Amino acid sequence: MPPLPAKRPQASFSVWLGVVPFFAFAMVFLILPTLHVVLGAFTRPDGGVTGDNLAGLLAGTILSALWVSLRISLWTAFLGCIAGLLVAGAITHGGLPRGIRDSITTFSGVASNFAGVPLAFAFIATLGRLGFITVLARDWLGINIYATGFNLTSFSGLTLAYLYFQIPLMVLIITPALEGLRTEWREAAESLGASGPQYWRMVALPVLWPSLLGAFALLFANAFGAVATAMALTGSALSILPIILFAQIRGDVLQDPHLGYAIAFAMIVLTGLSNLIYIRLRVRSERWQK
Amino acid sequence: MIGKRFWSWTIFALAALYFLLPLVGMLEFSLRARRGAYSLDAYRNVLNDAQFHQTLGYSLILSMSTVVLGLLIVAPTAFWVQLKIPRIRPLVEFITLLPLVIPPIVIAFGYIRLYNTSSVLPLTGSARGTDLLLTAGYATLSLPYMYRAIDTGLRAIDIRTLTEAAQSLGAGWMTVLTRVVLPNISVAILSGSFLTFAIVIGEYVLAALLDRPAFGPYMVWMGSNRAYEPAALAVISFGLTWAAMAAIQFLARRGHHSVKV
Predict the structure, then answer these.
(1) CA distance A221 to A268
(2) Which of A246, A269, B136, B192 suits a disulfide with A29, CB 3.0-4.6 Å?
(3) Whole-model pTM over 0.90
(4) Is residue A10 in a domain?
(5) Are residues A75 and A209 in the same domain?
(6) What is the mean pLDDT of each run of 10 residues along chain B (261 residues)?
(7) What is the CATH number of the domain that holds B130?
């Protein structure tokens, strides 16, 4: 349906009244609270403007938490992109039966929302010290997986758990892009003498590139903002930035309220930028899907 | 060709292993509460725990209030914007997408600082006020999903003609909205509602920071105090999420069908 033409201006005042509740709600419960946090990141306790709070991010526990957060988000975004791309490739161009394809899409819709506390419990029950696989490996294979250096409450454990919602998200967002790769392009490339790798390098990848980068950015933001999974899985054994912020909000553990604002501001900037990249690149990649 | 099939099946098998094992593990673990035999003891303990009923009941009520609040804010707005002021649609869309950009923990932080007892709007001063704040917070988190579902639903029908037809029969705005538009986008509304439900029911960060007795904080508390009950809770919570998401898929398929016909 084409966009409806706007009504003539004479009725405009009463027309605008219709959207007042929405904007009022957004103002009170979304924009003002965020603005308060952002402004707090740039002010001193006495009200003066300062950049010290942001500088405070680059020291001690906060810097190391920021580093862990960045690493886990980049790493799970990277692995999630590759694994999700493989799964999406298998269901779009791999000749799997229709039924499997549909069930993977449905499952991805559910699993991408299965983050948080229950996900952590599922992994503890599976790979914790008394977990299903841990016990099976011990009793049947005689392998103690905890002796290999693996620990569920560490970086590797958290990575494994995060991938449970990262891979399905990748499958959901990259499948349309893969469907946009037309068979004709492959046939055309082959009839011109291109080999399989050449087709991928010179035709498919350049078309997919914006989608892949955009998906990577979205997965990064998705992992960076996650708190509940990490808290329920590791307690506070692994300090990531949102966990520090959580402790700070609850009990001012950093003994400087404005450092809390600065952490929150840094989180908005990072997730905001990656979402912006995602939206930009999605617009570019949709050219090929028409 | 056989090579391609082989790799597809291998990828599928590996993915199935990775995604099913934690579910199997969770189920198996939840049955292990009695030494030496599988039993439903963990579930019995959970179901006999008064706190389980209180927190789950609280979260259920909260999720329903969130759905109602979300609908009250989103449905009339999406309708009005499409019908009367389509030029502000990009702005409205942008605002509804913001909760995906701003992490929930930051929104909660803003609430606590802005609406504490010493502010103009001291919502966190009383339990009722905090409940209201929490509901509003959840409605905010669900804005992207609710708005997209309803906006898509509205675009699939000719609301202009429907509205004009109803008005020429003497219907006022309320009648148009409640008796003409809403019934026509019921599938979209239900999808948005189920997704909201799935988000709210086990949410942890907002509820914990606002210190309300919701299901999410209860699960975390169990996680650090019990061994097998958390797995039972995860199974229950997963079942609830699955039911909500399955309902959406079902509705989506039916919705597609009716549009095609």
Answers:
(1) 10
(2) B136
(3) no
(4) no
(5) yes
(6) 79 94 93 87 92 95 95 92 89 91 92 86 86 96 91 88 89 85 87 88 92 93 90 91 81 58 30
(7) 1.10.3720.10
